[in-house]
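EI: anyone free to look at a 102-residue chain?
SC: sure, send it
EI:
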Amino acid sequence: MTVSFRVGRYLVALLWHTAPYVVLGMFISSFVYALFVVQLTASFKEELQQVLTAAQQCAPSDPANATDAEQVKGRAPGLSEHASSFGQTEARAERTLEHPPP
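SC: here you go
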């Protein structure tokens, strides 16, 4: 099937007449996107200032009091050195499983 000269000419004319609207749409969408980025950046700046203000309020007012804080109590150092080996633990588990409670 061949395309007649009239149909080809019509398609070129259609492309020629729609091109300005496509370019205009791309320009407008780019402008709207740029505005969105500017507003988003401004909101991020405000949020960052609020977070920094809140962080400064949480800081101790007197640094001397901060050094006297009580240490967090955790596991004693060297406790893992006294733990039983894997084989002993495995044997204990097998003994426990062999004799279930009555």
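EI: The longest helix spans residues 5-58.
SC: 👍
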